[in-house]
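Cross-check.
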Amino acid sequence: MKSGKNRAKRVLIIVLITVVSFIFIVIAFISPISKYLIEKYSKKYTSRQIRMDWIFVNPFTGYAHIHNLRIYDQNDDTLDLSAESFSIRFALSKMLLHTYEITSATLDKPWIRITRDKTVFNFKDVVDHFRSEKGYDTTETKHPVHFNMRNLEIKDGEFHYVELNTPVNYFVKNVFIETKGKDWNEDTMRFDYSFQSGPGQGGDAKGYFSINTHNLDYTLRTIFSHFDLVPFEQYLHELTNYGTFRGNLDANVISKGNFKRETDVDSRGILSLNDFHIGKTEHEDYASFDKVTIQINDVDPDKHIYRLDSLVIVHPYFVYEEYDYLNNIERMFGENGSHVKQVEANPAKLNLIIKIADYVIALSQNFFESDFKINRVAVSNADFKFSDFTTTEKFSIETSPFYAFADSIYKSRDRVHFFIKSGIKPYGNAVFNLSINPKNTTYFDLNYKITDIPIATFNPYIIKYTSFPFDRGTVELTGNWNVKNASIQSENHLLIIDPFTGKRLKNKGTKWIPLPLIMTFIRERGNVIDYEIPVTGSLKNPEFHLYYVFMDLLKNIFIKPVTIPYGIHVKSTQRIADKSIILQWEIKRDDFSPVEKKFVRKIAEFLSKYPAGRISVHPVEYAQREKEFILFFEAKKKYYLLTRNKQYNEFDKKDSTYVERMSNKDSLFVKYLNRHVATSLMFTIQEKCSAFVGESLINAKYSRLVKDRESQFMSYFKSEGVANRVKLYPSKNEVPYNGLSYYQVDYNGDNMPEELRTAYDEMNEINGGIFRKKYKELRKTIQAKYDKQASRIGNSSNDIKYTSSITTININRFNKT
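Predicted model, tokenized:
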């Protein structure tokens, strides 16, 4: 009995040892066998070569772990996926119930590369390999097979996306994706994710994504934090000849929709684009803004709902430049956007910028027919700049700072009101009030007022078409528009105060029109141009009624000759007042005109006659314009000498006159520049000339000009022995109101030239006279503008200020005797 028990015990021990040994043997050998089989047959069964350092397989628990996993592309020469480890666990017991369940799967530190060549992705061969050519057998079986996936996870991944045709190369890092998975009888699967942008300034993204695998409904929650938009620059290169881009995104948005219909999306949240820049180079923007924030209450294009709490744009900037050939936008994107059209016409090229633009258009195409509501729209501190390089000298004007506001923009309202206010650089202001019907934008009322713009601002155009500049004058334009069903009824009032032309500029690039003669007829007795210009017709075909302009012109032809003596007296008195305190320099000249010489001598004689008299002089240099003229002259001079084989010491006065009158846009000159200057990103004659002669030469010539002017001015006072009573301040670089560099003279003490005192009194009387009284208040407004400029140069607390049509006179209080 006892021996039987011992025998059974020995048998049990042997069995246990055998089973344990078998288990150990299986575990010990199945792992290398598995590695061998996977690496040998992976190409056959997956179309991809799979490699690994080692694998551990436990067939009894359904667990497998691969270390240093590597999967290569179809040609076995490029790595498509690698991972530090891959672990997976199966629920073996459920297989008996015809249920295949992945209990957990973890991919640790994967590196994944996705490439797209035209319309083909690098994983297409894998998809094609597993696609059944015969289709799926949908007949019911006695024991249907079920699949469950649970607890799937990607840790600390790095995903690379490469487009070979565009090309684009972008990656995200620190990728974490986690899902609880789904069972066979569930229809929705949720993924939680987070990652960082790889290149550029980085930025974080996180959120979740859930999808109904049956009907393709989805919910997406995304939170971006200063996420760098650097990949867009690569798509931009495909659309442009040149250019740079940068920006980042903050967002917290939740969207619900369906993948079958692009407009079936319902979104809420906040979007903010920050530090956005697009332009010619990294340091030269064409467009930018500090921030654009959109607060979305509810946007559902499918239900025709667009409800925003606010749309705020902070410090937008946009520059538009006209060149001799095309403009800065067409230079960048091709003539009429030809590069964009080429990309759109090529289905093999996937451009993310175009896709996003198309999607936004699709979402907003029914905006005005929908139930839209925007509680607040604001544009803050905008800067819009226009420059024209087609003229003989650069024209530039800027609206800055520009503000626009609107509240309660509702489809249900009869009227929506917009208020726009802007400064104009170098001088001026503009105010617009717009009331528009949101249901029909062809119904609106507009009131505008544009004031304090010096007519000298437009000299580049005026010189181009007449050869004469304006050296004084202020423009004001006001109007009221009432538009009903696109039909216009409007009143527009043009007023130019004290316009006077300067000396003709002889240049082969300009046309000649006798502007001074024309001005004698169009300028009224009060030294103004004052016209009403009604506009009627339709928005597509407006009609400008010039009847009142022609009638005023006809009246002046008959009336002005009678008042010629009055006009001569006003002009003479005004010149005395002007020239005694403002000495203007002709562009690029270091000597005064005969008129200026006369008055500077009078000032010197006054100081010599009155020992107590003293003056302060504040030079104001229009450096930008002076340098531009120096630049053109030096570039044409160098071209002239090189093409005629002349030396610099052979350049005489006759040559100088020829060069001076030579057009800046002379065709042979421009062709020469294009051959001798690297002009790939130089679109203006100014840039080409600067590269041709060198910026250092221009700066040196300008510095010499400033010093020569100071010496020329002081020479008159030295000859009279009164230079010690002249305080000459350092020159300041500003844009003068009337477009010419000048010296402002302030008289200190109780004495001043009698001629100036008399002229001052007479001008005050003239401004209150019958012909000028109507514009007296407006002249005071203009005076405030001049005073503001003068206060930046010199001031005295006890000064009397009189404004002529040129600038401010600062005269110390005196007793009239």
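The first strand starts at residue 50 and ends at 51. The CA atoms of residues 10 and 502 lie 126 Å apart. Passed to J.P. for a second look.
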